[in-house]
Write the structure tokens for this entry.
Amino acid sequence: APGAAGRQYDSMIVTEFNKSTQAFLVDSVDRIIRIDWEKMRAPDAMMTSGQAMITAVSELEDGKLVSILDVEQILASVVGEPRMADIPRATMTPEGFAFFVDDSLVARKEITQVLDKMGVKYHQATNGREAWNKLQAFASRPWQNGETLHDTLKLILVDAEMPEMDGYVLTRHIKSDKRFDGIPVVMHSSLSSNANRAMGSSVGVDAYVAKFEPTLLAETMLPFLQR
């Protein structure tokens, strides 16, 4: 297939994100490898500044570094970001807040826009390990005036694939910790196949919603936020 300046490309990488199929023209494929997300690390600040499209890195046994592209940001730059229309407002107590984690810059931007339009306060993290550390800190906080973690932390929104700790492992940690009993976990992922939804159900997520559908995201979160 012809690429920029008439250059010929012989290979395409076909992907499925957000209920659609895409193909990326590549110069060549060196090799195909599988890496556990726990072996992926968040990139340093230099790799994530500006419009950088790297969400994770990992070092192979031969010492070479592998970078994970932020495909969600790439797709958003091509097809545009979704319209923020018909976002419902949430009726919550003043102390209530949501917590979300996502390694993709464009996904975090969408989530914050949705929560802002809903009138919801929030805290966030950029990878699973950071999220779990922050959630444990919330759970260990000395609450006052009769408040509890269950009363204030209304919802936890998790991405599926992240460096340090993926959303499935994070959800398993949350659901096995009694301090988080009754606090709903919603998985928000660009991997929207039935198999991915089944994986989410197997670790106990309370709902699963595809990314880049802001109205659906808001409608999914609303009853949990107003519980």
Q: What stands out?
A: Residues 97-225 form a domain with the Rossmann fold fold (CATH 3.40.50.2300).
